[in-house]
């Protein structure tokens, strides 16, 4: 596991804790990946959950809350507890982001680990074990992967942009001033889409659906610390550890972010 950025004080200790936990989560996930394990469908069409999701969730909750007993806890695979709303600091966790891809034996799934302090993300890790990538950031300390600092793309021409989005987001109803000509790409994990945007491999990512905080908390810090902007679909700032634990979609990127907001009016 890469070392934490030594210039990322005062959140270095929290980052190191998340990095260590992500390493353990990766070990568990890879032990199950493409093997035999149980899978269930969540109620209400909320998607699948696997034995690996639940094992990782239990490990992360035990490891992280033992190390930081005063922090709250918000995870996709743990029943929500409103006590987190009274905590200045809260872990926001997706044990496996991209469970459908994981269950299908595809590689684009990962672990999304973040800490929110008074609504803002201060430390974050996105780990992608099946492809051997890890990204991390601290508030004010920059964003990095194992090759060095991350920097968002400088692309400002929306029609020439490469953007990560699912096909339903291209519905003309979302683009009242006309659908732009950017090239659409897709990855299963929202956290990975944000990490790829932070690294400049894509110019932006977007989703107009209500978005769970655990899918985007870590990625939001990666993008902003890489010099980009992350907001909801209206351009409003993102805040975390809310009662609903959802945002009104998300748009993230470099200058392309501004162009997306502008064209949608």
What structural class do the secondary elements suggest?
alpha+beta
For this structure, what is the CATH class of the largest domain?
Alpha Beta
The major pleated sheet works out as: 7 strands, mixed
**Mean of residue pLDDT?**
94
Radius of gyration: 17 Å
Strand percentage: 25-35%
CATH fold field value of the largest domain? Fructose-1,6-Bisphosphatase, Chain A, domain 1
- Give, in order, the helices and strands: HEEHEEHEEEEEEEHEEHEEEH
State the share of residues found in helices, binned by percent: 25-40%
Task: Indicate the CATH architecture of the largest domain.
Answer: 2-Layer Sandwich
Shape: globular
GO molecular function: inositol monophosphate 1-phosphatase activity; metal ion binding
Keywords: Magnesium, Metal-binding
Family: Belongs to the inositol monophosphatase superfamily.
Protein name: 3'(2'),5'-bisphosphate nucleotidase CysQ
């Amino acid at each position: 596991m890469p070392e934490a950025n030594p210039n990322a004080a005062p959140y270095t200790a929290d980052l190191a804790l998340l990095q260590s936990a992500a390493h353990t989560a990766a070990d568990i996930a890879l032990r199950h990946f493409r093997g035999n394990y149980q899978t269930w469908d969540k109620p209400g069409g909320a998607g699948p959950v696997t034995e690996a999701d639940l094992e990782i969730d239990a490990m992360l909750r035990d490891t992280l809350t033992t190390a930081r007993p005063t922090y709250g806890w918000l995870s996709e695979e743990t029943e929500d507890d409103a006590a987190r709303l009274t905590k200045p600091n809260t872990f926001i966790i997706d044990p496996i982001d991209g469970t459908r891809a994981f269950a299908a034996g595809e590689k684009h799934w990962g672990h999304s680990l973040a800490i929110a302090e008074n609504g803002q993300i201060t430390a974050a890790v996105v780990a992608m074990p099946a492809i051997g990538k890890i990204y991390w950031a601290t508030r004010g300390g920059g964003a990095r992967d194992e090759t060095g600092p991350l920097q968002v793309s400088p692309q400002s021409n929306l029609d020439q942009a490469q953007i990560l989005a699912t096909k339903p987001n291209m519905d003309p109803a979302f683009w009242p001033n006309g659908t732009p000509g950017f090239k659409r790409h897709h990855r299963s994990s929202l956290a990975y889409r944000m990490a790829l945007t932070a690294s400049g491999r894509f110019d932006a990512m977007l989703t107009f659906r209500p978005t769970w905080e655990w899918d985007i908390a870590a990625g939001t810090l990666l993008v902003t610390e890489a010099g980009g902007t992350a907001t909801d679909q209206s351009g409003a700032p993102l805040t975390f550890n809310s009662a609903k634990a959802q945002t009104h979609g998300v748009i993230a990127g470099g200058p392309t972010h501004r162009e997306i907001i502008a064209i949608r009016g």
